[in-house]
Each structure stands twice: as structure tokens, then as C-alpha cells.
Amino acid sequence: MPQIDQPFEVAERLRSARVVAVLGAHVEPYRAAFYVPDYLFHHGYRILPVNPQFAGQTLWNETVVSTLKEITEAVDIVDVFRRPEALSEHLADFLAMRPPPKLVWLQLGIRHAAVKEALIAAGIDVVEDRCALADHRALVASRG
């Protein structure tokens, strides 16, 4: 299942995930990079925030780290809040994660064909251009 785009696949990934690294996590409550992971946190996910701008601060009971390379534990989903043109600079970090993430989730409006192909070639599944909050509400929370 390289690209995950069917609702039942998305729902299953959200149900089975427990740890979500948030690349581009933000401290401002009005930003999607805050309120989407905050929603997930309040629905039982452990959130590992990543953003060099806020490194050392605490969000969702975790210390914000600068890069994905600093995460030394298994991550189910890397939820990405970065502009498409910035994704190439993170590809090496995605691929260097050990163990590799099960899924890289590119939030609504984010697509990058070359990064997606490289992740899939490395055995990492990809969700593109979807909102984790909206999908969780529609596919998981509404079904109990």
C-alpha cells in the first residue's frame, strides 16, 4: 500500500497509530500546525513536535526538537506541515529515521511527486493532500 488514499485505508492507519511526529509543529493556536496535532493529542495520540524555531519548548507534554533525526523512537506517522517546496530538504531525515515511520502524511494542500516516490521506494507509505483532523473526525471518531 504505497499511497494511501481510500477512506478505509486512511481510517485503518489512524486507528492503528499511536505516535505521531509533527514536522512543522507550531505554538500558535490559530495555525493548523497547532490545532491539528492538538486535536490528535486530545484523542489519545502521543505527539512529538518538530520545529527548530521552537526547539526546547514544550508542546503536548513533549519537548520540541529541531529535526526528525533527533527522534530516537518508533513513529507511526510523520504528519507534515511544511510547504511543498521545502519537502526535499526533509527527505534524508525521513529516510534516516530508525525504525522508519510507517506513514508520512502530507497535510491538505501538500503534494510533492519526487518526495512521494522516494518514500514509497523506501517502503514508507504516503498520504497526500489530506487533513488528519478532518479524516479522523469523519472516519474514526464518528464511528466510535
Low-confidence stretches: none
CATH topology: Rossmann fold
Radius of gyration in whole Å, from Cα? 14 Å
Instruction: State the end-to-end CA separation.
Output: 25 Å
- The oligomeric state of the chains shown is single chain
User: Structural class, from secondary structure content?
Assistant: alpha/beta
Beta-strand content estimate: 15-25%
How would the global form be characterised?
globular
Q: How many discrete structural domains?
A: 1
- The percent of residues in helical segments reads 25-40%
Characterize the largest beta sheet: strand count, sense, and whether it forms a barrel: 5 strands, parallel
Order of helices and strands: HEHEEEEHEHEH
The fourth-level CATH homologous superfamily is NAD(P)-binding Rossmann-like Domain
Mean pLDDT: 94
Number of DSSP strand runs: 7
How many helix segments? 5
